[in-house]
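Standup notes
- DV: blocked on the single-chain target, sequence here:
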Amino acid sequence: MAYPTVSAPYGLKPVNLIGGQVFAGATRMMEIASGYATSIFYGDLVKRISDGTIEKDTGTTTATPCGVFLGVSFTNQSTGTIQQQQYYPASQAIASGSKIFAVVADDPDTLFQVVSCSGTTTVAGMGISAIGNNIALIQNAGSTTTGNSKVAIDEGTQATTNTLPIRIIDVVRETATGADTFVEFIVKINATMHQYNNSTGV
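- DV (later): unblocked, structure below
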């Protein structure tokens, strides 16, 4: 049987909630500090920091995200118009008195679809035995052309280690490359690492 080809990672894409509940697009607007110097792409993990804004969570074997970035809105300094786009460009200059707001999927029960890679962006399969394990992330740079993240889960790091940031919930059978080889997975942010569940504040 021929399966669709998955050629590259695309970050974390929300699909539904625990228990099969529908992801209805519920998100929270979170502020990004003016001039923040790191680009954030659709599907990147983000975290709250002590000044109340968010930044990209670049953790791999550990991370403490509050959710996944799904876009940005700000007032363009040149035109004075509100601009909405797929990714936040690093060091964004904005109009005086305006704010940069990120759209974030922050429900701790949200499930995401993600690609399994080895190294950086080389797609690599895992078996069904990966379900239930925690796993590390690969932090690839996103695409300024599509605005999409290229974050992936790191094939070979799956383990019971409770500080790994991602929990594997299921496989995506439609893109399997063999009877027991899967390259896309349904995951959630590990409960103990999600900022809303973590007993330590920011």
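- Follow-up: The radius of gyration is 17 Å.
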